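Researcher: Quick sanity check before group meeting.
Model: Go ahead. Protein one:
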Amino acid sequence: TPELEQAEVVVVDTSGGLKRCGGQGDILSGSVGAFLAWAKCYEDHAFGDGSMSVSRMPLLAAAGASMVTRTTSRIAFEREGRAVVTQDMLTDIGKAFVEVFGQGAQGGKL
């Protein structure tokens, strides 16, 4: 029942760039899609120990994608300043992923 359901609030306080520009949502949605694809692989036992509930995966995908996108934006803004456009961010996605999740998270058997 709705009375028994509790809302879970996740706050992503990862610093982002100081400029928003068209196309950043495309990076965010692509990142969510990548994380959800990895979640499906986890659900299918391609990796992991199965200790995490699959029902949490969409929330984790959204939070992880937000962290990567915000970090990507910050890195690009630090380099390009106010002239940054979304295209400048593309080469920084991998670097942002490593910054957020660590170098070891880049590997894997997939």
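Researcher: Fine. The other one?
Model: Protein two, sequence then structure:
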Amino acid sequence: HGENVISLQVSHFRVTDTVHEPDTATRSHYHQLPQICVVQDGSFEERLGGKRREIRARSAVLRPAGELHDDRFRASGARCLTAEIESAWLANFDSAGSDEGEDEAALHHNG
């Protein structure tokens, strides 16, 4: 799905910078881990569940694990920074809010 410029493991995240050539498309696929994709440059159309959405530069897409989608890259192509999120981190995040009396502010980073 594009050419990986660099890929790094940072704690529970796999961060990848990817370049997608102009006028290309991906077949329908899904990712085993949830991910956040930030479009740094260019744009593409993503088809998801029969709906199409235009993803432009300086926007982000959240993709849950197992979500079937395909992408069509425009004449400008696209450069995307994607962070795949490991389940271990999500499990810790989910358990952070499980206590009834927990202060909601403790779930937010103030830095």
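Researcher: One line on it for the slide.
Model: Residues 100-111 have pLDDT under 50 and may be disordered.
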